[in-house]
Prior knowledge:
With 362 residues, chain A is of the alpha+beta class.
Amino acid sequence: MSQITLTGVGKSFGAVQVLRNIDLDIKDGEFAVFVGPSGCGKSTLLRLIAGLDTPTLGDIRIDNADVTRTPAADRGLAMVFQSYALYPHMSVKQNLAFGLENSRMPKAEIEERITEAARMLEIGPYLDRRPGQLSGGQRQRVAIGRAIVRNPVAFLLDEPLSNLDAELRVSMRAELAALHKRLKTTMIYVTHDQIEAMTLADRIVVLRDGRIEQVGAPLELYNKPANRFVAGFIGAPNMNFLPAKVEEPGGEGFFADVLGESRQAVRANAAAVRADQPITLGIRPQHLRLARENEDGVEVEVNLVEALGSETVVHTTAGNGDPVLAVLQGQRPFNAGDRITLGLDPENLHAFDETGLRLQGN
Amino acid sequence: MTRVMTFLTRRRGGKGWHWTDIVTWVWLIGGLVIMFGPAVWLVGSSFKTPAGLAEFPPTILPYATEEVTVEGYDEPLPLFEVTLEDGSTAILAEARRIGLVAQMIDPNDPGEPVPVNINDRSPVRELSFEIDNYTEPFVHFDFLQYLYNSVFVTVMATIITLVVNSMAAFALSKYKFTGRNLVMFLILATLMVPLSVILVPLYSVVSALGLFNSLWGVILPTVATPTGVFLLRQYMLTIPDELIDAARMDKASEWQIYWRIILPLTAPALAVLAIFSVVWRWNDFLWPLIVLSRKELYTLQVGLNVYAGELNVQWHFILAMTVVTMIPVVLVFVFLQRFITTGIAGAGLK
């Protein structure tokens, strides 16, 4: 059991408020990912949970025990750092043993745990080497091993893959996912890479400017982003946003005027909007398609065509000058300067009000 | 060997000699002579007799006039190469000398002495090492006692300096507290105060603490050095804070963080400070001279002073003992310097 609950947590460094009013409940065995742009406070939040910093407001509970003022060592958590933070003067084995020796564990048990972790992570052959003699991927495994041997109630991982090259990152990502399946321990993972978040998480916590923007399963965030920020942050390539205006109720919601040139049906609660209310419509590049004959679409000018074979990425500019990116299936014979009309399907449209919140019923 | 030669004969001007090559060589050789010359002279002269030391012009190597024992004379007689009146040269021993004329005899055939003008002869000289300069003080001078005192002061002071300074540096580099910069500033400010300014108050303090005439009175006032704190702090600032965070997560106490993480990683800087401290304490003269007034407590540097009397300075002993006192410092430097350049293996951080 290791449920981590944060209530009204805030953190300020001097006059700078880094985190405000964070309420979060991480369930036992869950893989939670904190994601957000740099400086959003996600690493600070992790350090608060770890006990390396103390919150200025609110409290943190692990399994219902208040640990807000408990020192890091006594929280039973283990952390993997972005720089790995392996002790450079100790061998891999000593690195793994350091935490266990400090908790006065018998030698035989230390040995046993190290052997087990080394087997699991395949670092057995390097146990006598120094961290400086290991490659990036090996160091990463050792860093994870140092966390595993502690047998912690939860793992905290602070951008653990950001120092690896792209190929290694993909394979380590898969290993981490497998590790979580096997250990079934709560993991909190901080990253700015939304692909890592999407692939690893049971639940994603999107942060911005020290606030939680949305908490949810990866696909929930992808399909129903709660606001414009989450919509733009989750999913690659980024969602396109088009300014629109509410016209009149109808269809499954209301009709909207997009860029003053096209009429689109939007699925939403028509009662929650008023006529002429400015809204923003979002659509993912993959959901854009070429408009059919006589269909009302958005006319755009092609700037750049990237033919990838199976799909064609088209960079375009809408009538109001905003960039629109479309990922079209198959190969398309476009050239820069061509004018094309893109069709929007109501089921793929995300509608946000002027404050950026998702419209009711959308 | 060929690589060494290529390195040594490498010139900026390609084939010819560029003027900077000449300046470089002059500069380097001149520097070598200026820096190393006195040390060579010191070692060479430490083997000279008092008479050899008084000679002008001075020589680097110790030469002495050869002597022989001649039948009929109790003392060994000095040998000279003499140009005789008939123009031939011979090796003769000097029996006695009166004014400008010396009475010389043939050591192999000691018959009637031959009078020779002293301008017509030159001494036969050979390399001769006056080992007595070294052995004599060991017997008559309390060298071993002084050596023990010096070693005790140096080792203790260095150990305490390393521990105290590294603790201060650890706190000043890794903990955030109000007044941290002020404390650092104050420590550095003490660099500006020379020993001679605080000599009298320091003496009062040491005396009041009952440390007068005690080796601890020499050791304790010297252990907190601003240079050491500054040096170690600057080095510790380069140790990533994440390592300390990791150690905290690993249940390490603050003492363990200091002792098992920070200290081993600061080893190169500690070695530098250790060298400094050993050299400082070993060569210290003024402060031990003030604190120690009993002969059996003297350190080597103070002890050497006994050869410099008011009327008579026994240079041959001073030079010999100076060489002996230099040896440990040179050894420390040679060994720890290698340690510094090797550094410690690898960094666990990116």
